Each structure stands twice: as C-alpha cells, then as structure tokens.
Amino acid sequence: MKYATTILAFCVAALLSLGLVMLYSSSMSQAGANYPVAQVIWCGVGLVAAGTLACVDYRHLKKVSIPLFLAAIALLVAVLIPGVGLRAGGAQRWLNVAHQSFQPSELAKLALVILLAHFAERYQRFMPTFGRGLAAPGVFIGLTLGLIFLEPDWGTTLLLAAVSGIMLLVAGVRWRHFFPPLVLGAVTFVTVLLHNPVRMKRVLSWMNPEETKEGVGYQAWQAMLALGSGGWTGLGLGNGRQKFGYLPEHQTDFIFANIGEELGLIATLGVVIAFVVLLFCGIYIAWHSRDTFGMLLATGLSFLIALQAFINIGVVTSALPNKGLPLPFISRGGSNLFLMLMCVGLLLSVARRAADNRATVARSIDLEETAIPQTA
C-alpha cells in the first residue's frame, strides 16, 4: 500500500506542476492575465483539503452522504433558474460565489459517488436484484444526470453515467439487469443527439475534420496542428504559436494540445502514462480497502479522474467528438481542480485505513503466535 500511495502522490504532484507551468506559458498570449495566480491559490486550497481528508476516516462520509447529495441537487436546480445561474457559450452551468464562478456539477460528481458507495454497502445483499440493485440507485443517478443534461453539459453527463455504471457492476449488479437500461439509455441519447443540430454538427465535423476545418471543426483542426507541429520534443516551453489566437480554449479544455506543441510527444505520452498509473493505483487501493464502502468509493473516484482525463485527451486528439471536459490537475478551472484534489485526499484516506487494518491484523497474529506454548 505504501508504494501505491507514494506513486499516486508523485503522479498528482507531477501533473499539478506541469499544469501550473503550462498555464503560465498560456498566459503569455494574454497581457495582464491573472488566471495562473488564481490557479495557484485554488491548488493551495485543494492541497489543504486533500491533506485534511487524507487524515480523516473516510467512513464518516456515510453520515453526510444524503445531505451532501441533496445539497448538490439543490445547487443543480438553482443553476438552471434564470438570473441565478451564469450563462456562457450557450450553457448555464455556473454560480457566482464570492466573485468566483463555481460549477455545481463538480460537487454533484463527488456527492453521487459517495451516495452510490454508501447505498451499495448498506444493501449489499440486494444488489444482484433488479429493484434495490438497479432501480433504486437508478432514481438518484437519473435525477443527477437529468439536471446536468439540462444545463446542457453532455460531457459530464456521459462521464457520470459511465462512472455510475462501473460502480454498480462492481457492487454486484447483474449484467442481465444492467444491459437493458444501458441499451435504452444509448438509444435515448442517440435520439436526442439526432434532434440537436449543434451536437450533430460536432459529430459530423469529427467524422470529416478537413471539410469543416474553417467552421465547426476549427478548434479540433487547430489542436491537431499544434500536436503535429510539436514533434517528439516540442518547440520549447513558451514557444508555442497556437495559443496566440489560433486555438480557442488553449488554457482549459485544449491545454493538452499546448503541451504537445511546446513539449512534444514525449511529454504528452508522459501525461497519458501518469493517468494510467493513477488509475491502477486507485484500483489497487480499492482492491485492498478494509470494507465495501471503501472499495466502491475508491473505485468511483479513480474512474472519475481517469475517465475525465481520457475523454479530454480523446477530444484533443480527435479520437472523440468535442465534449468540453477539462484535463484533471492541468486545465484552468478552480472548482474542478479542487474536486480532483479532494478525490485524491479520499483515496489516500482509504489507503491509510487499509494499511492500518493490515498492521492491526499482523500484530494480532504475532500476539497469537507468542501466546501458543512451545513444546519441546
């Protein structure tokens, strides 16, 4: 467990350092940009929160799982109210808190993972049944996804749907119960997609990037140019050209392209490897957790971080249509960075309690062995 937590912490520290450096590089294209400073502040606050959560017993989350989920739902409803939620880019996803924008969907991610883990542990023997195993958790999963979908935020909706599905399967839901709702959800999603002109244009642009590089596919095309121009070792830190008005959102959703342009293929492969290693460390922690709640919590948090990273990288490399998800620990965005660091803190808490439990068991075995009388 010591090696898993050490490697996990090293990967997170490396990604955070790279993110701060790349945000500083991105700010060169905007005179007076102060978001690198804001990111440093959010990083510091997030590290304090992660350290605090790592020292606290994660099992205390069971007491606040329902209140936290209700608070997240209330904020998701509030953000949809005209005049309360901030609207930008055709979406209403943000709340203004103390002159800082905050995405309630970030809190909803954590709240849903905690609630699912608590529910599955409490009704563990009923998870193979359809009623309590799938229908009951499907109610609060559907409520959360529906509110996020209305913002609209399709990327977060798909991310949470995937994480929730993985947690339910790990908890013991049977495939014969899980498969029909999965097919129904996929058919519903495709139907809504076909009747949404904006998203359909993105999908068609993804299928024909060269034909739409001057229109809908401009951002994806510029990202590919940035990655291609970087080569193996990149143009050098700060020497990227796409950030000077060519690549939109180069400091948020498409910062991976900026990394590829300035630091090259070696750096981008390093980022991918770091997230893969992070996922395996999280799975190892989940596998060795001391209880079902810890196992499911660590599983959900690990896949929440890793899947968001892989979706972002897939979008930037044109392996997936544009979804608009930030790259964890690297992209600009205080609320997402804070959530990701909280997830890391909870993973360390699960690992710490698992290590303490193994140490207690080892001591008890030693005491039992010393208590056995030795025969000649």
Short summary:
This protein is mainly α and 376 residues long.
Q: Which descriptors apply to this entry?
A:
single chain; mainly alpha; 376 residues; 69% helix; globular
Descriptive report:
The chain has helices spanning 2-26, 35-55, 61-79, 104-122, 131-149, 154-171, 175-194, 197-207, 218-230, 255-287, 292-316, 334-371, and strands at 86-88, 91-97, 100-102. By secondary structure, the protein is mainly alpha-helical. The protein has one domain (2-352). A three-stranded antiparallel beta sheet has the order 1-2-3.
Write the layout of secondary structure elements.
Layout (H helix, E strand, L loop, with lengths): L1 H25 L8 H21 L5 H19 L6 E3 L2 E7 L2 E3 L1 H19 L8 H19 L4 H18 L3 H20 L2 H11 L10 H13 L24 H33 L4 H25 L17 H38 L5
Antiparallel strand pairs: 1-2, 2-3
Helix pairs in contact: 1-2, 1-10, 1-12, 2-12, 3-4, 4-5, 4-6, 4-11, 5-6, 6-11, 9-10, 10-11, 11-12
Estimated helix fraction? 55-70%
Give the H and E element order.
HHHEEEHHHHHHHHH
How many domain modules? 1
Strand content: under 5%
The main sheet orders its strands as 1-2-3
Determine the structural class based on helices, strands and strand pairing.
mainly alpha
The number of E-state strands comes to: 3
Low-pLDDT segments: none
Biggest β-sheet: count, sense, barrel? Answer: 3 strands, antiparallel
Roughly what is the average pLDDT, rounded to an integer? 89
Task: Give me the number of helical elements.
Answer: 12
Over the alpha carbons, how many angstroms does the gyration radius reach?
Answer: 22 Å
Distance between the first and last residues' Cα: 39 Å
Outline: globular
